Amino acid sequence: MTKLKPGDLLLIGAACSVQFSGDRALRLRLVSVDARPTYEGWVWLTGYVLSDKGLAVDKREVYVRRDGLRVLRATTRPDGRVRT
User: Fold this and answer.
1) Cβ pair 45, 35 in contact under 8 A
2) Where are the domains positioned within the chain?
3) What CA–CA distance (Å, rounded) separates 18 from 6?
């Protein structure tokens, strides 16, 4: 998986954790990736949950499987190129 950056739009679903399965999946605009040590392959993320219209509706901290994350849209640089 590519390096996660603040501003990335992530899909948090069942592949991340069973607590996000079905209609509990969410889109999260990433604010930060916590540096705290965790179990291998898991990560703490902080971000804003987005509504269907793309508006921030809640700030959340989630504990998820990193390889289950799906980047919907990567952060773009000021010159318009996508960060990788």
Assistant:
1) no
2) 9-73
3) 24
Under 8 Å between Cβ of 71 and 7: no
Pairwise CA distance, residues 5 & 72, whole Å? 13
Length of the chain: 84
Q: What is the pLDDT of residues 7-48, one digit of tens each?
A: 999 999 999 999 999 999 999 999 999 998 999 999 999 999
pTM of the model: 0.83
Q: Are 26 and 69 in contact (CB under 8 A)?
A: no
Q: Cα–Cα distance between 78 and 49 in angstroms, integer?
A: 24
Q: Are residues 65 and 42 in contact, defined by beta-carbon separation less than 8 angstroms?
A: yes
Q: From CA 22, how far away is CA 31, in angstroms rounded?
A: 24
Beta-carbon neighbour count of residue 69 at 10 Å?
A: 22
Instruction: Kindly write down the DSSP assignment for every residue of 9-28, as one continuous string.
Output: EEEE-TTT-GGG-GGG-EEE
